[in-house]
Amino acid sequence: MTEPRKFGRPSTDTEAITLRLPREAIQVIDDLRRQEPDLPTRPEMIRRLLDPILGRNGSN
Q1: From 21, 23, 53, 60, which residue has the greatest number of CB atoms within 10 Å?
Q2: Which residues contact residue 40 at a Cβ distance below 8 angstroms, ignoring those fewer than 6 apart?
Q3: CB neighbourhood size of 45 (10 A)
Q4: Would you say 58 and 48 are in contact if contact means Cβ atoms under 8 Å apart?
């Protein structure tokens, strides 16, 4: 017998947060996003900005 197929997103060790930022900060993030060759999403750009501060290499 085969295992039933699982649907939905794979589980990860993350937690969603809601963050309010001044419009000026969002504009800076959007400007930085547009400089990236792959145009990351806002959440991805924020992760990329935080990774060096948190001492991570960006692969996690």
Answers
A1: 21
A2: 33, 48
A3: 20
A4: yes
The two three-digit tokens of residue 49, written as one number: 């900005």
14-59 pLDDT tens trace: 899 999 999 999 999 999 999 999 999 999 999 999 999 999 876 5
Tokens (6 digits) for 45: 């750009």
Using a cut of 0.85, tell me whether the model's pTM lies above it: no
List the chain domain ranges: 23-53
